[in-house]
Design brief:
The complex is a heterodimer of chains A (about 140) and B (about 190). By secondary structure, chain A is an all-alpha fold. Chain A contains 5 helices and no strands. Classes of the chains: A mainly alpha (about 140), B mainly alpha (about 190). Chains A and B meet through helix 1 and helix 2 of A and helix 1, helix 2, helix 5, helix 6 and helix 8 of B.
Chain lengths: ~140, ~190
């Protein structure tokens, strides 16, 4: 019952509103010539200043393609920017991995020499002995 | 994307209503023309590349903002037009019942052509005067909803308020208008 009353009330409201609107619309037809002309002039001026649509032709896209990637040209979406940064990240990561591998390789080589020296029959202290150096020189002669 | 022709046609279809609405708000034809011109410029400059279906909503928002800007400028310039309270929600109308005080007589609808021109002009002036008397938000909601033929959701989006608020504003506006017009002996 209450919802019926509310619906009926809303319908009456809408009907009343539309009748008022119809009266107002009829009134706009009677606007003075001066006002109508000024509105027309304002409209023409506005349309002349219309924001131009951004149309990318194939030639323009090809010409600006390289520069756009390097300069993160404006208008690119976030995902485009992320995608263009990815190769750079991959390059840096690759260089880092190569450097770590080379360091490890060098350390391994030094370790091998050290191990060979330490496991040799001649003790390492012998190389620092002045008599041994003298012996080497004499045997060379 | 709206073409130049579509934009022009759209502006042509709304310009007169926009002008009258601005006049109801600011009560000054020169200022209303400036507001409508500003709104058209802003729409064309900033949203001229939008689809034509989005233009009505954008234009309503721009027009409302331009009207508010005008009030702000006026308030800053002098205190003559400091009636910003017009834009606050009113809390009058207690137990007014539309069904009791405004009942349409179904058979009373007369053909408009049969009415006297002078009487029609007089009635229009009365209606416009009563619309100008409405609080700003009620007037805005009422005109968008019924004159611009926007639905409740669209009106709410354009006004930046809830759908419930739009319904309340419209309901109060209808009640106030029907009361006032009935008191003047005007029957629609």
């Amino acid at each position: 019952m209450t919802s019926n009353h509310a619906t009926q009330s809303e319908q009456l409201q809408d009907r009343f509103g539309r009748r008022i609107a119809a009266r107002l619309s009829a009134g706009t037809a009677e606007l003075s010539h001066d006002v109508a002309e000024r509105l027309r002039a304002a409209r023409v001026q506005a349309v002349a200043r219309r924001k131009p649509a951004v149309i990318r032709t194939a030639t323009a896209a090809a010409a600006s393609g390289g520069a756009a990637t390097l300069t993160f040209g404006e208008g690119q979406s976030l995902w485009n920017r992320i995608a263009s940064v990815l190769p750079l990240i991959a390059l840096v990561a690759g260089l880092f991995v190569i450097q770590v591998a080379q360091d490890e390789h060098r350390a391994h080589e030094v370790a091998e020499v050290d191990a060979a020296l330490l496991t040799d029959d001649l003790p390492p202290a012998a190389y620092a002995d002045p008599g041994f150096i003298q012996f080497l020189k004499a045997s060379k002669d | 994307m709206a073409t130049e022709r579509e934009l022009s046609d759209f502006l042509k279809s709304v310009e007169k209503r926009a002008f009258k609405r601005s006049v109801y708000h600011v009560r000054d034809e020169e200022a209303a023309l400036d507001i409508v011109q500003d709104s058209m410029m802003k729409l064309a400059e900033h949203y001229g590349d939008k689809p034509v279906t989005e233009l009505p909503m954008l234009f309503q928002r721009i027009l409302s903002n331009c009207t508010l800007d005008w009030f702000r400028r006026q308030k800053t310039r002098n205190a003559l037009f400091s009636n910003m309270s017009d834009f606050e929600a009113s809390t009058e109308d207690g137990d007014f019942d539309l069904l009791e005080t405004f009942a349409f007589a179904e058979g009373s609808q007369q053909a408009e052509s049969a009415e006297d021109t002078t009487r029609r002009a007089q009635m229009l002036r009365e209606i416009e005067a009563q619309i100008q008397e409405l609080p700003g938000r009620q007037r805005e909601a009422f005109l968008m909803r019924y004159w611009e033929d926007m639905d409740v959701a669209e009106t709410a989006a354009a006004m930046g308020c809830s759908e419930g608020s739009v319904k309340t504003h419209c309901s109060r506006a209808v009640q106030a208008l029907s009361k006032a017009l009935k008191a003047k002996g005007i029957q629609l």
